[in-house]
Amino acid sequence: ALNPAHYTRGWHATVSIGTLGCAAAAARLLGLDVAQTGHALSIAASHASGLKENFGSMTKPYHAGHAAMSGLRAAQLAREGLTASETALEGRQGYAAAFGASHPLDAALDGLGRRWQLLASGIAVKPYPSCALTHAAIDALIELRAAHALQPGQIAAIEVGVNRVVPDVLAHTKPGTALERKFSMQFCAAAAAAEGRVDLASFEDGEVRSPAVRDLMGRVTMVVDPSLPDGLEQHAWSRVTLRLADGRTLASPPRGAQGHPDTPLSAEALRAKFLACATRVLAPDEALGVAEQLEHLEDIPDLRALTSRLAGDLD
After folding, report:
1. Distance between CA atoms of 186 and 218, rounded to whole angstroms?
2. Cα–Cα distance, 224 to 10 (Å, whole number)
3. How many CB atoms lie within 10 A of CB 23?
4. Exposed, middle or buried by CB within 10 Å (0-12, 13-18, 19+), for 264?
5. 315: confidence class by pLDDT, cuts 50, 70, 90
6. What is the C-alpha separation between 208 and 113, in angstroms, rounded?
7. CA–CA separation, 148 vs 77, rounded Å?
8. Residues 6 or more apart from 90 whose CB is under 8 A from it?
9. Is residue 122 included in any domain, yes or no?
10. What is the number of structural domains in the chain?
């Protein structure tokens, strides 16, 4: 009912919509009744916010945590008796009207309890720690680099064709910080082509230390390609064209990124991603043990055996 117009207008759906999803999940887990669940959703509607203008800053990743915190708090408040308007979602001055619903809310309720959108769309796992809109280009450039044994000096120009929604998101053409680099096609494409990787280490330093990456960033152009598919789940597609110093042209056709339901990560790649992240806060043996538990989640009789290993100190 809200997207894609909601996202295009500047709202970050992870928090502006996700807060209500978190409230619904928390209400279910807390065993709220129908009335309490309605209040939880209405409370969450007043918590929901999140602006795309904060992409490339510390506040952007905070959005996900804020959605979880606000959704849980809304459910807890409803459980304790806090009430809210019964029409906070669909009322004339309610959530849908304020956030610019492009379709009637009734349409969003069609198939409720029968059609499970998560199963229909599938779950995407990000292979790279940058904006998902950079991932298809990263995949293509890593593959072209390997297939043709390319060195940075051989590349005269990189053109990345993207969907019309992408430039407003990947707005940092000359990123000044590591967080801005996550929303820079210029950096992500240059790193993929020059180094054959885009990983956590790519975003650790305040400045780009690699001379090859810095130089190549100036040769990356991002253009809107109207021929790319325009479906909501295809906004992250891109195409890549390389012009080499010797006059050759190499191209990767329009494609989505690995990690999406149609091209899922392998079990090995998923484990490698988890361990790369988890070993920053857990000992390697402990991280491996957690990975093994997660891979056999259905065999754990008591989830506290897992969550106790994941909870950190609050101070």
Report:
1. 7
2. 19
3. 32
4. middle
5. low
6. 49
7. 59
8. 96, 105
9. no
10. 3
First to last CA, the chain: 41
Structure tokens at 9: 């207008």
Give the residue among 104, 148, 140 at the shortest CA–CA distance from 236.
140
Q: Is residue 120 part of a domain?
A: no
**Residue 39 corresponds to which tokens in the numbers above?**
């209040």
Q: Which two tokens stand for residue 296?
A: 């056999």
Q: Are residues 211 and 136 in the same domain?
A: yes
Q: Distance (Å, rounded) from C-alpha 196 to C-alpha 191?
A: 7
Alpha helix ranges (H) inside 95-134: 95-99, 105-109, 117-121
- Look at residue 262 and tell me if it is in a domain: no
Q: How far is it, in rounded angstroms, from Cα 154 to Cα 244?
A: 6
* pLDDT tens digits, 247-302: 999 999 999 999 998 899 999 999 999 999 999 999 999 999 999 999 999 999 99
- The answer to whether 122 and 261 have CB atoms below 8 angstroms apart is yes
Share of the chain above pLDDT 90, in %: 76
User: How do strand 249-255 and strand 238-244 relate by DSSP bridges?
Assistant: antiparallel
pLDDT score of 295 = 94
3-class DSSP state of 293: helix
Most distant pair of Cα atoms in the chain: their distance: 72
Paired tokens of 219? 């040769």
List, in sequence order, every residue forming a beta bridge with 51; answer none if it has no partner.
11
Query: What residue numbers bound the domain in which 187 lies?
Result: 132-255
C-alpha distances in Å from residue 175, one per residue of 80, 166, 172, 314: 46, 16, 5, 33
Q: What is the pLDDT of residue 264?
A: 93
Residue 107: pLDDT over 80? no
Low-confidence winner among 24-33, 124-133, 139-148, 223-232 (lowest mean pLDDT): 223-232
